[in-house]
Amino acid sequence: MKSEKIGAGLFMLLLLWGIAACGRLRVIAYDYNDTIGKYYTVRGFRMYTETYGKGKPLLMIHGNGGNMSAFANNVPYFSRKYKVILADSRAHGRSADPSDSLSFEMMADDYSALLSAMHISSAYVLGWSDGGIIALELAMRHPEKVIRLASTGANLWADSVGLRPDVWRDGVRDYQAWQKRMPLTGEKEKNDYKVFMLDFEQPHIALQELQKIRCPALIIGGDNDLIPVAHTRQIAAGIRKASLWIVPHSGHATLVDHSRAFNKRVDAFFRKPFRHQRR
After folding, report:
1. Domain contains 2
2. Is residue 1 part of a domain?
3. CATH number for the domain including 117?
């Protein structure tokens, strides 16, 4: 599940689990460059974006409670070869969201609309955590927009199968703590709760739905991820053209703590002819 840079409740716990598992989580600031930042009005809100480099477009989608800075260890590498597109998802970072609902399907449609607004017909896609879920939904709902996708730390279900049981139990405790704070009054508090509930109640993706993904996909997880390895294997097995990579000695932050190997492996997957890899 979720969270590279997380604020409240469940998501802070998830981040702490990732730190404990990997021992060296580091995120370098790589966002909010006002000289290149741009807003696009898509689907009822203003989505903040930055682009780096030239070449084929590569859309990077961050996780729950985070923002585009999640890819600080990846942008310098990929921007030498691709046009890297960063964005703050709906209700995250600078992309304020006035609505009272949030879903992964909604967010996938947002990214599809963003690519259209940028006059980009299709892109490579890299998603981490919730961003990995959004990448899968984008490929299912808008297959023409995705050339290839790499998804790390994604889950299909918000239960003790899609999450490690201890992480799921922590989420239940956080939900109970939220209920004691009702009614919420501040706008930030309401937004934080909306973002929390996204991961507490969702996603709901049936395995057979993954058959809608037409493009090659690289499904990634850490061997000590918040997502059980067995579940990550289920996701890869459900996609026709999927390769699986379980990163050794890694928690949830595969693309941070193993950034050199991660960048090279994902780049090779994007560039080379597809062949199944299962490890």
Report:
1. no
2. no
3. 3.40.50.1820
Q: Tell me, yes or no, whether 43 lies in a domain.
A: yes
Number of C-beta neighbours around residue 164 at 10 A: 19
- CA distances in angstroms from 61 to 21, 80, 118, 124, 273, listed in the order given: 23, 19, 16, 11, 24
What's the whole-model pTM score? 0.88
Report the alpha-carbon distance of residue 2 to residue 62 in Å, rounded.
9
Q: What is the pLDDT along the chain (279 residues), one digit of tens a residue?
A: 444 333 344 444 444 344 333 333 344 445 688 889 999 999 999 999 999 999 999 999 999 999 999 999 999 999 999 999 999 999 999 999 988 899 999 999 999 999 999 999 999 999 999 999 999 999 999 999 999 999 999 999 999 999 999 999 999 999 999 999 999 999 999 999 999 999 999 999 999 999 999 999 999 999 999 999 999 999 999 999 999 999 999 999 999 999 999 999 999 999 987 666 666
